[in-house]
Every structure is written in structure tokens, then in C-alpha cells.
Design a protein that fits this description.
The protein is of the alpha/beta class and about 525 residues long. About 45% of the residues lie in helices and about 10% in strands. The strands form five sheets. It has a seven-stranded mixed sheet, sandwiched between helices.
Length: about 525
């Protein structure tokens, strides 16, 4: 550090400070429009030497600034002195550092660089949530964002999660980096939770920890774009709005297959089967493992029924399609993790190629912890190792390694018999409250005077209900009644409770009375 200070003082006293202007770099040479400060620099050179070729004594410091903002040599000297002070930690006064930097690099330069950046569109769901928070109407209700709330409308942390955190605290959980693929024990327990204890995950599943379900879809999309090139991905119509954005960004071509019949507010199984038969062989088919978002259509606790799933999987098998299951609600949909896993477990048993995106945001209430996995069913350990190596190569430049706290919570809960049983009961309790709100909403709509058939709301499962309301109705709910929801008529049942249920029902009746709720 003393040497840095000494060199800085030398530079400040030097008769000339070399300025290298409009230097066009090659390889890792010094960037263009930069300045180099060095009393020992060879001004006779026509090009810069590579920084790696310089000795320590050759150079005092390198600073990168737009040169049209450099006012004079004294400003340059002041800047190099300020840099040296910060590096050395000496007792020099650094009060001048700010003013020196300001004189070399101004806001004007930043404005010119970024003046062509347009305003991007706000996220449809998160933008609505922000509008809700800004609303001053005391009647306001948020039925937009998919996060569970208790009977008082408050965020809910599962007691089993709290207990797991206590255990982690007492055992002084390490804060070291996880491997690129994540916590091995967490991944193993997560896969058993999804695939069941009978699955030989060590031989037939390549899996990595991801940043929740969104990260799992993104990593899976990149993997498919690289190793299943030229094959489009078909998503249900409708689907979670982020699916299309994620896969497009991965380089996959997104297309849609029929899923929801808006004329009857129900599953369009015939249309779905017909589309899966018509599309070209070996395509990628995105499937919601349970509680389809946004429609969540289901009968007798499954969506589609198990008999429906058998038809769907048979078509996929015959057409040699690749299944990409997105499982965001296992255990939360029906209240049973085993029931909610039936669809993709059946597909595995039929030897259909499968990728599985797994999230623990909603079923564990770990929304902000970003916990998930991506798994690929494979043939043997050699193939598994190959796939794992490529998944690591995808992850490494993106975020290097995943966070460990949330995965440690899930690992602790699923690894302790008593906590696991407690969790299953708590998860079932959340599902029961959601089902209760469905029935209560339909009853309240009838009490408000609605003559529509709202049975599709009670037929659906999971966090959301697809009401059938159109954009005009949704806009009225927001603008006149301060009820915030997405414009496709989807509402989060978790946002309802006994305090706001009657008001929401009366408001829905007001905007739908005498109008069709079949789009």
C-alpha cells in the first residue's frame, strides 16, 4: 500500500500524464476511450502493451473514464491521488475524492450512453400488486398475487418451517457456498418427495437445485434449446404468463395447445388430445403437474382426472414427445402430496422422456427463499453424469451456485419423520381453507343475487380460480370497487377471508349481473 501511495505522489508531480485516447482494444488490451496514468509509460509506442506484460513499477493505476469529460491534468492528478488513498487506507483526507471523480465523470455522460434505453412494460401481476399497495381505499382487496394468507389475511409461515429454522440455528448452519448443483441431501429428498420412494434416483435422475420453479423452467429451457434443438415447446392455452417469456428467452419457439374451454369454463380434453396428436412428433409438451395455473380445473381432486391423464400420456408416448412437467403445487392442490404427484409418476412409469420443474414456494410457503429443483429422467448412470455436467455448465455463468437457507429448511423438514408428518398436516390445512373459500364464495354470490352457475369455481382446485369474467368486468372491479385481480378473470382464493368475502361477492355480482361469464 505504501508503494501505491508513493507512485501516486510521483504521478501527481510528473510533468506529463499520458492520455491514451480512442484506443481500440484487441483481446484484453486496454479499452477504447480510457485513460492510463503512468509516469513511466512509453509515449513513443503506437499501441498499448497488454496489462499482463507490465511490471508493478510500470504503472501507478488505471482508471476508465470517458475522455470527453476530462477537464484538465489537475483533475486527473486529483483522481489518481483519491484512488491511491482508497487503496492504501492511509490517513490522507479523502474529502476530495468525490469532487475529483465528479469532475472526471459526470451524469451527462451516463445520460448520453443510456438515452436509447426504452421504458419496458411492467409485469402484469407484480404491477397490479404495486397498485394495490398504493390504493388508499379502505375496502381494497388483493386477489392477484399467488401467496397464501391466513383467515385474517396475513402472510403465513408454517410452524414446521419455523421449527426447522430453530434446528438450523441451534446447529450453526454453515454459510459456505453450495456446489453448482446445490445441496445434495436437499435434492435427494426433494426428488423422493416428487417421484416417490420407489424411483431409483441415483441411477435414473439427473437433478440440480434451482432458484424456485422459475429458475427450474429457465435451466430446463436452456438445456432443451441446446440438446433438443429445433423442437418447439407447446404450452397449454392458457398458461402461467411467465412460461412463454422464460422459454422464448431460452431460444425455444413457444406454441399453444388447447386446454381450457372458455364457453363452458372447463377442461377441453378433446381439443387437447386432438392438438397433441396433430403437432409434429418429438415436440416438447409443457404440462402442469397439478392445479393448472390459471384455470386449476379439476374433478374429484385431480386435474385432469387420472383417466384423462392416461389418455394424454398415451398420445405423448406414441408421438415421441418430451414432457416438461411444472410442479408448483404438490401437496397444496388437493392436500395430499401423493395425489398431486400421480400424473408425472404415471408418465415416468410409461417411459416417457421427462423433465420436472419443482418449486417449494407455495407448498412450503417459502416464496422469498427461492427453492426448487430441475430433474431430467435418464437411462443410466453414464447418461446421468453427462447431463449433470451440462446442467452445471448452464448454471455456472448464470448464478454460480444456489442459496442454501431455504433448501436447508426443506431438507430438515423432509429429513425428520416428526416434522415431515407435521408439514403434511399443515399443507393439508392450507388446502382445506382454500376449498372452504371456494364454497363460501359461491354461496355468497348466490346470496348477493347472482343467477349465474358458479360451480366451476368449486370444481377447481389449488390457489386460483378462473372465474370467467372478461377484461371489462375485471377493470370495473378494480376501478369501482378496489378489488385487484388479473385481467383474465383469475382470482387468488388465498386473498379471500370471512372479513372480505361478502364484499367481494357483492362486487362480482355487480359487474356480472345480466352478462355472460363464458368467454
Amino acid at each position: 500500500m505504501d508503494q501505491i501511495k508513493e507512485n501516486a505522489e510521483t504521478a501527481a508531480q510528473a510533468p506529463e500524464v499520458t492520455v491514451l485516447h480512442e484506443h481500440r482494444r484487441t483481446g484484453s488490451n486496454i479499452p477504447r476511450a480510457s485513460l492510463m496514468l503512468s509516469p513511466a509509460w512509453d509515449v513513443e509506442q503506437t499501441s498499448c502493451r497488454h496489462l499482463g506484460d507490465l511490471d508493478d513499477d510500470d504503472i501507478v493505476q488505471v482508471a476508465f473514464f470517458p475522455l470527453d469529460e476530462v477537464i484538465n491534468k489537475e483533475d486527473v492528478k486529483a483522481t489518481i491521488k483519491a484512488i491511491a488513498v482508497e487503496e492504501s487506507g492511509d490517513e490522507w483526507s479523502i474529502a476530495s475524492a468525490g469532487s475529483a471523480t465528479d469532475s472526471v465523470y459526470s451524469h451527462k455522460s451516463a445520460s448520453e450512453i443510456w438515452e436509447d434505453v426504452p421504458m419496458g412494460p411492467s409485469d402484469a401481476i407484480l404491477g397490479i400488486a404495486q397498485s394495490f399497495h398504493q390504493c388508499q381505499d379502505p375496502r381494497k382487496v388483493n386477489v392477484c398475487v399467488g401467496a397464501y394468507r391466513d383467515d385474517d389475511g396475513n402472510p403465513y409461515v408454517l410452524p414446521s418451517v419455523r421449527e426447522a429454522e430453530r434446528v438450523l440455528w441451534e446447529n450453526e448452519e454453515s454459510k459456505e457456498y453450495l456446489p453448482i448443483e446445490g445441496d445434495k441431501d436437499f435434492v435427494s429428498r426433494a426428488l423422493k418427495f416428487a417421484y416417490g420412494p420407489e424411483m431409483d434416483i441415483d441411477t435414473h435422475v439427473a437433478a440440480v437445485q434451482t432458484l424456485s420453479g422459475t429458475g427450474a423452467c429457465a435451466i430446463g429451457g436452456r438445456f432443451l434449446a441446446q440438446f433438443w434443438k429445433g423442437h418447439p415447446i407447446y404450452v397449454p392455452d392458457p398458461t402461467w404468463s411467465n412460461h412463454i417469456k422464460i422459454f422464448n428467452q431460452c431460444g425455444l419457439k413457444c406454441r399453444k395447445y388447447r386446454y381450457y374451454d372458455r364457453s363452458k369454463n372447463g377442461l377441453d380434453l378433446d381439443g387437447m388430445i386432438d392438438d397433441l396428436n396433430r403437432i409434429r412428433d418429438r415436440s416438447i409438451i409443457l404440462l402442469h403437474a397439478c392445479a393448472h395455473n390459471p384455470t386449476a380445473f379439476g374433478l374429484l381432486g385431480c386435474d385432469p382426472t387420472m383417466q384423462d391423464w392416461k389418455q394424454i400420456v398415451e398420445v405423448i408416448r406414441k408421438k415421441n414427445h418430451v414432457c416438461f412437467f411444472d410442479s408448483a403445487y404438490q401437496g397444496f392442490a388437493s392436500g395430499s402430496a401423493e395425489n398431486d404427484a400421480q400424473a408425472f409418476r404415471y408418465a415416468v412409469s410409461q417411459h416417457v422422456p421427462i423433465l420436472l420443474a419443482q418449486s417449494f414456494a407455495k407448498n412450503f410457503g417459502l416464496y422469498g427463499e427461492r427453492v426448487g429443483t430441475l430433474s431430467v429422467v435418464c437411462g443410466d448412470t453414464e447418461q446421468r453424469d453427462h447431463i449433470m455436467s451440462e446442467l452445471r455448465l448452464i448454471i455456472r455463468p448464470l448464478y454460480s451456485s444456489p442459496p442454501r437457507h431455504g433448501s436447508s429448511i426443506v431438507k430438515t423438514v423432509l429429513g425428520d419423520a416428526a416434522l415431515k408428518e407435521q408439514y403434511y398436516q399443515e399443507c393439508a390445512g392450507m388446502a382445506i381453507r382454500i376449498k372452504k373459500m371456494r364454497w363460501k364464495l359461491v354461496q355468497a354470490l348466490g346470496k348477493a343475487g347472482s343467477t349465474h352457475d358458479w360451480s366451476h369455481i368449486t370444481d377447481q382446485i389449488g390457489m386460483f380460480a378462473f372465474t370467467g369474467m372478461n377484461e371489462e368486468m375485471c377493470n370495473r372491479l378494480t376501478n369501482e370497487f378496489s378489488i385487484f385481480l388479473t385481467m383474465n378473470g383469475r382470482i387468488s382464493m388465498a386473498g379471500l377471508n370471512m372479513k372480505n368475502l361478502e364484499y367481494v361477492a357483492e362486487s362480482i355480482h355487480a359487474v356480472t349481473d345480466g352478462k355472460s361469464i363464458s368467454q
